[in-house]
Amino acid sequence: MPRNSTRVVRVGTVVFGGGHPIVVQSMCATKTQDVAATAAQAEQLRQAGAGIVRIAVDSHKDADALREIRERTEANLSVDLQENYRLVTEVAPFVNKVRYNPGHLYHHQPQVPWQDKVRFIAEVAARYECALRVGVNCGSVDPAKRDKFPPEDKISPMLESAFEHCELLDRLGFTQYCVSLKDSDPRLVVELNRRFAAVRPDVPLHLGVTEAGMPPEGILKTRAALVPLLASGIGDTIRVSLTLPNERKHEEVLAGRQIVEDVLAGRVTVEPWIPGRLNIVSCPSCSRVENAAFVELAEKVRELTAYAADYPITIAVMGCRVNGPGETDDADLGLWCGPRYVNLKRGPISLGSFTYDEILPRLKQELDSLIAERGGA
Ligand code: SF4
């Protein structure tokens, strides 16, 4: 299989890039402060074949928990930093990789230029021999980049943001980084990564379709993007992000391993992902999920809306307020979960919040009215 000659990045006991085997990653969906559950899930994922396991850390208490989790698992750990970039000092001693999102560097301490924040993160990462991932995500693009391009151009802001961060890390002399460019539309994932690799073939890429949803559709969507990319030599690590209950989380890893195995064996024909049909986008859940009923809710949304299978409607179901509000904007109907209420949106417009008992009939009402408006009922 031809592979792009990216630079080599070490993450604990694994290396990727430079023709090394493709590393399959996954992420814990347990509460980070539940040390026993998170360490057990990290182990479950490692034993299923995850070379790197990511954990969300949003607070000092999460960072404290990480210290104990580190002692209880042999997994190579990565941490997802969200808005508080300074938490990197508390997490870096216990992990092998840190992921930051350029689109989230604007919220915390907005008076500090993003370049200074990246310099801070890179210095701490270098001190503890942690790799970095610049994780660019469709739902949280750097607002300065988003405003520079017409709204229908989703690709340019994401690419420009990634290039800009690579240039800065290069100038800082920090080479142990990779980039990811994720969208929930597999066609955009292919386009984004092809275009990035054409300009920066030296930078390792972590591939994934964000909020791919529940299996089997989530696996089909992910395969539609990852198989052609890997078959053309693009991609050094992968994740299949699936909405699954905690006890089945390792299925993400098995699906990722199957993709790598198929590509290595030359089985590179994929079922095309067909837009123009009902598309349920749902997040894989993580420590930030605000109500344990989220996965069940996503499954019920799929069951409830099955009657609309042939309509070109996208419904997004997201587990929390961190990414929920932004990542439901592009959907026709969006739900994002709070602890007691589910927020319902039609495109970017909020329709209010509803209890977990009220939300499904309200969603059906909205879906029926959308179908009627579009001449379907
Ligand atoms: Fe985690 Fe929230 Fe993203 Fe879902 S939407 S994966 S709960 S951060």
From TrEMBL:
Group of enzyme by EC: oxidoreductase
Transmembrane segments: none
Single GO BP term: terpenoid biosynthetic process
Xref: InterPro entries: Dihydropteroate_synth-like_sf (IPR011005), IspG_bac-typ (IPR004588), IspG_C (IPR058579), IspG_TIM (IPR058578), NO2/SO3_Rdtase_4Fe4S_sf (IPR045854)
Cofactor names: [4Fe-4S] cluster
Role summary: Converts 2C-methyl-D-erythritol 2,4-cyclodiphosphate (ME-2,4cPP) into 1-hydroxy-2-methyl-2-(E)-butenyl 4-diphosphate.
Family named by the database record: Belongs to the IspG family.
Protein name as annotated: 4-hydroxy-3-methylbut-2-en-1-yl diphosphate synthase (flavodoxin)
